[in-house]
From TrEMBL:
Compartments, record wording: Membrane
Domain of life assignment: Eukaryota
Key word Glycoprotein present: no
GO molecular function: ligand-gated sodium channel activity
Name under which the protein is recorded: Uncharacterized protein
Length: 471
């Protein structure tokens, strides 16, 4: 028994020695002060400090796990900016000579009502389109649609436009496309950039959006659809701006780049532009076909896959590498799937896990203004010049100017309000302020543990012969 006490005495002595020599404040004072009142004062304040310290450290750890972000909005000055991709379509799908023949055939065979409204709304155009998959011959050719095109006052090279087949508008042509003819991403110096913000030095287009008389009954409207998008974003998923004939449409752009911090700071996933990053079927298919990735495309794939599985057909709203089997008379099944899809549960259960959300986005803010682009004298002069007999030019011609309002772009970037280093430094600050300890003070605890172990070992070694004698 005496021996054991001796051992504990030794430990106690060592502990007191260590505490007195500790780098922390407060606790050594408790042991060193001889005056009882002072001792109690030190005990009181040491405990108070420890509590406050613990409370504040917990608060900080909680704050770290809230994953708050700070958003930084900056105007990035630039002398030169990459011009966006501009995709130009005629809003009328059927405009060519081949279309006239096709429509005549169809109206004879299927006995379509001669009421143009009915023809339009009773899926007349859908039937036509289903018969003309990839039918490039039914829409405008580039030389018909784009009468004149200038960028920086220099005529554009029409053979550098990219072709895009829109399911809604048919043939479309992209100025300054992001991919070359082999679908490889073009490098920055192959893209057209600009250092001018004057209207006349932007992209100036004169478009012939005419529709032959024989086809005008299909759709009462005419004009051009203009998509403005970043090079890697497919036009299909953008909202177009409409340009009317007889009108000059001016589109002023400012670019905004938004970058979010990936999960857990927001809902988005990192590195979605890397095709090997995620393993889902839909993600890979989108990358295969579009060579870039956006979640909206992936959701559309998800929907098409559902209707393929459930109805054996789909409505290829957007171009894709999925099987295309048009749904002509399975409206019941399709509307059931559409309902299921818009319910939201299907999307969150089956589409969201396969479709990561991208963190980076480029958007263009557009300021649109219009002015009239025709008068009788001009019409007469032009029709004489172009030999157009009595056709009014203002019914066929739309003028469009696209230009940067400012080359500077707005950058909205998120970053973590508190990262791991911030957490460490605030814990360090709190521990230092309230207890005067640091990481090295923690080594002192290790030292105490080791000291006790050594003492224990020694006591066994040195005391065992004595204990025998005592016995
Ligand atoms: C369709 O009807 C028009 C007018 O009745 C006729 O001229 C044309 O030859 C017909 N086409 C076919 C394929 O029968
Ligand atoms: C489209 O036009 C080209 C050339 O004019 C022709 O070779 C091709 O067969 C046409 N395609 C259809 C589907 O009419
Ligand atoms: C237009 O582009 C094509 C293909 O890039 C090129 O071969 C041709 O020389 C260009 N024409 C002009 C006038 O620059
Ligand atoms: C527009 O295109 C149509 C069809 O090709 C053509 O008849 C017409 O002359 C064109 N208009 C102008 C102003 O070039
Ligand atoms: C749908 O169309 C197919 C082929 O045209 C036809 O055999 C079938 O009877 C149609 N079904 C309905 C419900 O109309
Ligand atoms: C926008 O296009 C450029 C040029 O191809 C590309 O480098 C960039 O990653 C694209 N940005 C986004 C957010 O898609
Ligand atoms: C316009 O048409 C007339 C007669 O049809 C023809 O003599 C003249 O050469 C044409 N002009 C042009 C510029 O095509």
């Amino acid at each position: 028994m005496a021996l054991k006490n001796q051992f504990f005495d030794e430990i106690k002595k060592q502990l007191i020695f260590l505490v007195l020599n500790s780098t922390s404040h407060g606790f050594p004072k408790i042991f060193s002060s001889s005056n009882k009142i002072i001792k109690y004062i030190w005990i009181f304040f040491s405990i108070l400090s420890t509590c406050i310290c613990a409370f504040l450290i917990i608060q900080n750890i909680k704050k770290y796990y809230d994953f708050e972000v700070t958003t930084k909005i900056r105007l990035k000055p630039q002398f030169k900016a990459i011009f966006p991709s501009i995709t130009i379509c005629n809003v009328n799908f059927f405009t060519s000579k081949e279309s006239i023949e096709l429509v005549q055939d169809l109206t004879n065979v299927t006995n379509y009502p001669n009421d143009p409204e009915l023809f339009l709304f009773e899926s007349g155009t859908n039937l036509l389109k289903s018969k003309t998959q990839n039918g490039k011959n039914y829409s405008d050719s580039i030389s018909k649609l784009i009468l004149k095109c200038f960028h920086l006052l220099i005529p554009c090279n029409l053979s550098e436009f990219d072709f895009y087949f829109s399911p809604t508008y048919g043939n479309c042509y992209t100025f300054n496309p992001g991919f070359d003819s082999n679908k490889n991403l073009r490098s920055f110096d192959q893209l057209i950039s600009t250092s001018k913000t004057f209207k006349i030095q932007g992209l100036r287009l004169i478009l012939n959006v005419s529709v032959p008389e024989e086809l005008k009954f299909i759709m009462p409207s005419n004009g051009a659809a203009i998509y403005i998008h970043n090079q890697t974003d497919p036009a299909a998923f953008m909202r177009p701006i409409m340009a009317a004939p007889g009108v000059s449409t001016n589109i002023g752009l400012t670019k905004t780049r938004t970058v979010q911090n990936p999960k857990p700071y927001s809902q988005c996933d990192p590195d979605t532009q890397d095709p090997s990053k995620y393993n889902s079927e839909l993600f890979k298919m989108v990358h295969d076909y579009y060579k870039s990735y956006k979640r909206v495309i992936c959701f559309d794939y998800c929907y098409q896959r559902l209707s393929l599985k459930e109805c054996g057909c789909n409505q290829p709203i957007f171009p894709s590498n999925l099987k295309k089997i048009p749904c002509l008379n399975k409206t019941k099944c399709i509307s059931k799937q559409a309902e299921l899809f818009s319910d939201g549960n299907y999307v969150s259960d089956f589409c969201v896990p396969e479709c990561p959300l991208e963190c980076e986005m480029i958007s263009f803010t557009k300021t649109i203004s219009v002015n009239k682009y025709s008068n009788d004298a001009f019409d007469m002069m032009m029709s004489k010049k172009l030999n157009l007999s009595n056709r009014k030019i203002s019914e066929d011609i739309a003028q469009v100017n696209v230009y940067y309002e400012s080359l500077d772009h707005t950058e909205i970037v998120e970053f973590a309000t508190m990262d791991f280093v911030d957490l460490l430094s605030s814990i360090g600050g709190i521990a230092g302020l309230f207890l005067g300890i640091s990481v090295l003070s923690l080594v002192e605890i290790l030292e105490i543990v080791l000291e006790i172990l050594f003492l224990y070992k020694n006591s066994i070694k040195s005391n065992s012969p004595i204990s025998k004698v005592e016995l």
